[in-house]
Write a structure and sequence with these properties.
The structure holds two protein chains of two kinds. Chain A is α/β, with parallel strands linked by helices. Helix content of chain A is 31%, strand content 16%. Chain A has two domains: 108 residues, Ubiquitin-like (UB roll); 83 residues, [2Fe-2S]-binding domain (DNA polymerase, domain 1), CATH 1.10.150. Chain A is built from six helices and six strands; from the N terminus they run βαββαβββαααα. In chain A, α3 crosses α6. The radius of gyration of chain A is 19 Å and the shape is globular. Chain A starts with a strand and ends with a helix. In chain B, the strands form three sheets. Chain B has a five-stranded antiparallel beta sheet with strand order 4-5-8-6-7. A four-stranded antiparallel beta sheet of chain B has the order 9-10-11-12, sandwiched between helices. In chain B, α5 packs antiparallel against α8 and α11 runs antiparallel to α12. Classes of the chains: A alpha/beta, B alpha+beta.
Chain lengths: 202, 330
């Protein structure tokens, strides 16, 4: 088990003073922290996290997993998308302390134990579904989440409302584009991203 | 971001007790709006009471045919729930028209109702905003307000409520269940959000310390034809410029029950009572729908740059009502 302390970037003296007046801690007080255990790509990590630490920063700065990217840092671009207990989520909007006990999968954990890439990763390579590549880890994690949602019968905005509940939703191109709309690609590689996801389905 | 204490609650009582014990606390649901506002410095809670692990993540059928949705049910799960898709299609459609797949996986039913306006003046600490800081003025009134309110606004605030889900819940006569220091109560969703008036800092009728525990969809609107339609600047993943949810029941060739609510036109989901009153007892014809919708939108007072919302909302409403009525009657 990997146990280390996740230090925030040096809280200012002013912040520490503010904490002293709010909590009965004796100087020098530090911002509130809690021990948090996460399984990241199959490996357990227990860290003492500052409550302000979001999952994205914990992954990148405390665990050295720089695959998930910081784009907007406000849940608008999807570059930080990872899987939390198998569901896709914006890691920039999740406080790590609230995820105690959760299973996190990042782009680094998608490939199997060997060198075998995940089918979605392979399809992105084969279709050259990126230009700069910054949004790609988020696109791939999001696509994997979206495929699982469709398989579980989750409809989307463009699903015909008459589609029977609870049955897998077939994904055509319009469905893929709608379901991946939370991932922005400023290079505009959308056609090939949709191609890659279509390849995985067929 | 300011430091804060973190408390994970395992029961509703634990949550409300923890909230009471920490002045300046906020409940944490999916965090999709609250965490963002904390990063912006708009929200500065001293403590977060995490309610996501409360046993409220269930959708259950009640003996009278109503459907109770727990406050922590995620938006994606609610939209996909067979009972919601089959009996309250407008709600499923509204949820799926909002945000992105990632955000819907995180956002909760309770949190969706309590999300704050996306008015850019509210989100920018360098700008005046009576909602964020009462008495500082409204930057949007004479500023950039293309996305803002055309109904029910005040000199103090022209912000709109951003939720799609709440618009469908208002049209479907859903109620919000609340649990607080003074016990439990419930409020119609249509009355839960406020108009800004002199106090835009208050979004809803929730009392300090109260926690949303669930939403109840009534048996009366279960299985009735209902639909949601939203207009936005891009085809997906954008807030509404205008939206409408409607539920319509016909009996003996006339409208027996109508529930209509507009989104993105006001500080709250705008329940169109005048239009509904005009429709009940009328044959569901295009002329009747036009008359009813025009009666409602006659109250609109657009700002300098958002008059387009009135005809947009009108066309959305006529389209949805026309689709809910059998083609032969229109």
């Amino acid at each position: 088990m990997d146990t280390r302390s996740a230090q925030p970037h040096g809280p200012s003296r002013k912040v520490i003073d503010a904490m002293d007046s709010q909590h009965e801690g004796t100087a020098p007080a530090s911002p509130p922290r809690s021990d948090t255990t996460l399984r990241v790509n199959g490996k357990p990590h227990t860290l003492t996290v500052d409550h302000r630490r979001v999952l994205l920063d914990l992954l990148r700065e405390d665990l050295g997993l720089a695959g998930a990217k910081k784009g907007c840092d406000h849940g608008q671009c999807g570059a930080c998308t990872v899987l939390v207990d198998g569901r896709r989520a914006n890691s920039c909007l999740l406080f790590a302390v609230a995820l105690d006990g959760c299973e996190i999968t990042t782009v680094e954990g998608l490939a199997g134990d060997g060198e075998e890439l995940h089918p979605v990763q392979r399809a992105f390579l084969e279709r050259d579904a990126f230009q700069c590549g910054y949004c790609t880890p988020g696109q791939i994690c999001s696509a994997i989440g979206a495929l699982a949602e469709a398989a579980a019968g989750h409809p989307s905005h463009v699903t015909d409302p008459r589609t029977p509940s609870g049955e897998p939703v077939p994904l055509d191109r319009e469905e893929i584009r709608e379901r991946l709309s939370g991932n922005i690609c400023r290079c505009g590689a959308y056609p090939r991203i949709a191609d890659a996801v279509e390849d995985v389905i067929s | 971001m300011k430091p804060f204490a973190y408390v994970r609650a395992d029961s509703v009582e634990e949550a409300t007790d923890a909230f009471a014990a920490h002045p300046g606390a906020r409940y944490l649901g999916g965090g999709t709006n609250l965490v963002d506002l904390m990063k912006l410095g708009v929200e500065t809670p001293t403590a977060l009471v995490d309610v996501t692990r409360l046993p409220l993540d269930v959708v259950e059928e009640l003996p009278d045919g109503a459907l109770r949705v727990g406050a922590t049910v995620r938006n994606s799960d609610l939209a996909a729930h067979p009972a919601v898709r089959d009996r309250y299609p407008a709600l499923s459609q509204a949820l799926l028209a909002g945000a992105s797949g990632q955000l819907r996986n995180a956002a909760t039913t309770g949190g969706n109702l309590l999300q704050r306006t996306r008015c850019p003046y509210f989100q920018d600490l360098s700008k005046p905003c009576n909602k964020r800081e009462p008495g500082t003025g409204c930057g949007a009134l004479e500023g950039v307000h293309r996305d803002h309110a055309v109904l029910g606004h005040s000199e103090q605030c022209v912000a709109t409520h951003p939720s799609d889900m709440a618009v469908a819940l208002a049209a479907l006569d859903a109620r919000v269940e609340l649990h607080g220091p003074e016990g439990a109560r419930s409020v119609p969703v249509a009355d839960f959000h406020r108009l800004p008036g002199m106090h835009p800092e208050r979004d809803t009728e929730i009392h300090p310390g109260e926690l949303i525990t669930g939403v109840v969809l009534p048996a009366a609107t279960a299985g009735l034809p209902s639909a949601y339609r939203k207009a936005r600047d891009r085809a997906s993943y954008a807030f509404a410029l205008a939206s409408v949810a409607a539920v319509l029941h016909l009996k003996d060739g006339v409208v027996d029950r109508a529930g209509i609510a507009f989104g993105a036109l006001a500080h709250r989901p705008w329940r169109a009572r005048r239009a509904e009153d005009a429709l009940v007892g009328a044959a569901p014809t295009t002329a009747a729908f036009e008359h009813a919708v025009d009666l409602e939108l006659a109250a609109a007072e657009p700002l300098r740059d958002n008059a387009y919302k009135v005809p947009l909302a009108r066309r959305l409403a006529l389209d949805v009502l026309g689709r809910l009525a059998p083609p032969a009657t229109t």
